Every structure is written in C-alpha cells, then in structure tokens.
C-alpha cells in the first residue's frame, strides 16, 4: 500500500511517548491523523479533542473504522506484538516504539507477520523507533568504524549510567518494573536504544555473560543494575554497564582498535590515533614496554542537523509514499538488541555463558515462571510529573 497524498495515520497508546509523537505528527504536511487510541477512555477522548480527531478505545476498532494506512504503536511492551501482528494482517504499515517485543519469540512472531504481509504487498513498511541512530555523535562513530579508521576492533566498553530513576518513577504506573507488566527492568525499558546502538556499531556478540541484580536499589521485582561481558567471533570483547541507581551518572564509550582508541564522552569524540598497527608493533617492536606513538585528535561533529523521533517518522512516511526506501531502522533489526538483552538475563538467571543463537524457548519459559510465581505487590501512584525529555 502506498499513497501520493497524505498518509492516513493513527496512534495507539497515549501515554508520555504517544503524546510526544503527536506534537510533531500534527505539524507534518504529509500526515493525516485519522484517529488516536487508548484503552483509558478519558485519555483517548481528551487527546482526540486536543488534536481534532476521532477517539478509539481499542486498536481493532481503529483499524476497522478509521481508514488507517499506517500506525504508530506506543503502548506497554507486551502489547507491541499483538497490535503489530493485527496491523500487518490488515496490510497496515507499522512504526513501533522500542523494544520490538519483550522476548525473542514474540519478536519472531511480529517479523513473521510482517513477512507474510510483504507476500501480499511488497511495499508494506515496518519501522522501529530507534531515534538514537540519528544523533550526530552516534552517526559519526558509525562513520568512523565503517571507514575502517580503527582497523581490527579489539574492545568496546560502554558505561551508561545516566538512567537514574527514583522510586516514585517506578511507582508511577501499575505496569512499570514488573515481569507481568513490563517484562523486565533497565534492559527492557531504558536500554533498548543502547543495545541497538551496540549491535549497530559492532554486531551481535557470539557469547554473552550477564550479571543482573534484581531490585538492588529500588522496590521492584526486575533488574536495576546490569554488567555484561561480550565475546565476538572476530575476537573483539565488549563490556556493557548500566544502572538506574547512579547519580551523577556516566555515559562513556571506549572503542579500541589496532590503530588507536576512540572515546566518546560529554558530547565529544576523541581519537588517539596510533602511528602504526598495534598488532604489528606487538610482534615487531624492539622495545619491551614502549607504547606506539599516538596523536590526540578531537573529531569534529556537526550537531546542527535534524535528529530525534521526528526524523525516524519522516523516513517512515517517505518510504510509504515512495513504495519503499531506507529507514533509520527497519523493524526486523529490533530482534538483534532484544536478543542481547534476553541473553544477558538468561545468563544471569542460569549463571552460565549463553552462546548465540540463544534458546528463546528457555527464556520465554523463565519469564512465564517469573510472572506466575510473582508475589510482588505494586504500590502504584499517579503523583509526580513524568519528564520524558530526560530519557535518552
């Protein structure tokens, strides 16, 4: 399905992210908002009145009655799968918020539905909201790696602890930070972008060791501190360190290759460029301990370019209108970061190295067991203000 005029689009899920998307969607000349949907009638009615559109209280009604061509899905994580599948079954283009699903098996179901829809209509579009790929510093790191400037990659270490959350945040919704409502903690909620960026830059690891601490600092039943160790088939190792309990937090990425070290921190990329290959120097140097000569270079980055959610959506809409095209992130790519997240948790639960591809059935069984055996009592409150601008 493609159109030369405005794309008839609906939004499902009118929480913080859904409303954030609506603010720019209604400013796009090539989008017609044909409906908004939320299971909370009051939210749907109020939002529909604000944006002069029609309120729906179930996505099936939105799909059936609105004349919709494309849907932006911004609901709690478990619902990403059934709503996406229903959309594809009706030939509707899908732009889904992260993550693609809670676990790998659900991601596979979504991708299978998309592939079946493509057999009926090869122009159907499936995008995922990985707007962090559009950020100038991330794009520059990708450009440097793709250009081979570092040579063979040796190590990537990412410490990202700028995810501080108070107990009030976790108490702000009855679905948050529960196995049944959200399906996980920091890896499922805050870090899908980081895990996507990791695999976008370095690929999916071959072996994963994860150490996840459950409710270590917060009264929650899911993980709030994670350290993971990755091994790649090309010999590179990776470290991934995240938590919602550090303030002030850090966001520091080190990438080491045979031709030097790249450091990204505090909105600056520094390249310590070695004069020759470190791998060759190890074998040929006549010095027992001397370092390879290296030069400090601050990499220029043009930050005055469009980035963020709107850029992802604009690419999605353009692809629909053109009957295909490049997206910031194609939907099926969402399974890669999700696989890493699931493998980290399975490794931690089993206290063992997980070799990829992982046993997705085993992880789904473990998740079902955690939901079934949960004795956690949620103390939900609606007090406080949700500031999504803080979320990366």
UniProtKB/TrEMBL annotation:
It comes from Paenibacillus foliorum. SUPFAM superfamilies: Glyceraldehyde-3-phosphate dehydrogenase-like, C-terminal domain, NAD(P)-binding Rossmann-fold domains. This is Gfo/Idh/MocA family oxidoreductase. InterPro entries: Gfo/Idh/MocA-like_OxRdtase_N, Gfo/Idh/MocA_Oxidoreductase, GFO_IDH_MocA-like_dom, NAD(P)-bd_dom_sf. Residues 8-117 form the Gfo/Idh/MocA-like oxidoreductase N-terminal domain. One of its GO terms (molecular function) is nucleotide binding. Coiled coil: none annotated. Residues 139-262 form the GFO/IDH/MocA-like oxidoreductase domain.
């Amino acid at each position: 399905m493609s159109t030369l005029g405005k794309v008839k689009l609906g939004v499902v899920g009118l929480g913080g992210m859904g409303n954030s998307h609506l603010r720019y969607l209604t400013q796009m000349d090539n989008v017609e908002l044909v409906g908004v949907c939320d299971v909370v009638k009051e939210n749907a009615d109020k939002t529909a009145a604000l944006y002069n559109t029609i309120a729906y209280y179930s996505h099936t009604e939105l799909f059936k009655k609105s004349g919709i061509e494309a849907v932006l899905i911004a609901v709690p994580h478990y619902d990403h799968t059934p709503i996406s599948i229903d959309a594809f079954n009706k030939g509707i283009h899908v732009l889904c918020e992260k993550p693609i699903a809670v676990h790998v098996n659900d991601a596979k179901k979504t991708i299978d539905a998309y592939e079946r829809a493509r057999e009926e209509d090869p122009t159907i579009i499936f995008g995922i909201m990985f707007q962090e790929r559009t950020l100038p510093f991330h794009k520059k790191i990708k450009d440097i790696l793709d250009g081979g400037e570092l040579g063979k990659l040796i190590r990537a270490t990412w410490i990202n602890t700028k995810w501080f959350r108070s107990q009030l945040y976790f108490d702000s919704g009855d679905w948050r930070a529960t196995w049944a409502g959200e399906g996980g903690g920091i890896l499922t909620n805050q870090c899908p972008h980081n895990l996507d960026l990791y695999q976008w830059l370095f690929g999916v690891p071959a072996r994963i060791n994860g150490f996840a601490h459950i409710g270590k600092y917060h009264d929650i039943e899911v993980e709030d501190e994670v350290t993971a160790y990755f091994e790649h088939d090309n010999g590179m190792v990776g470290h991934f360190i995240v938590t919602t309990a550090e303030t002030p937090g850090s966001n520091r990425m080190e990438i080491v290759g045979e031709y030097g070290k790249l450091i990204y921190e505090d909105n600056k990329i520094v390249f310590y460029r070695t004069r020759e290959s470190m791998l060759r120097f190890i074998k040929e140097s006549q010095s027992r301990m001397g370092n390879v000569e290296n030069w400090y270079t601050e990499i220029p980055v043009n930050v005055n370019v469009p980035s963020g959610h709107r850029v992802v959506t604009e690419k999605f809409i353009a692809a629909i209108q053109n009957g295909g095209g490049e997206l910031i992130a194609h939907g099926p790519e969402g399974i890669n970061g999700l696989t890493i997240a699931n493998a980290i948790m399975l490794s931690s639960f089993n206290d063992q190295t997980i070799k990829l591809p992982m046993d997705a059935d085993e992880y789904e069984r473990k998740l079902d067991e955690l939901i079934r055996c949960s004795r956690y009592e949620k103390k939900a409150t609606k007090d406080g203000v949700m500031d999504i601008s803080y979320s990366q």
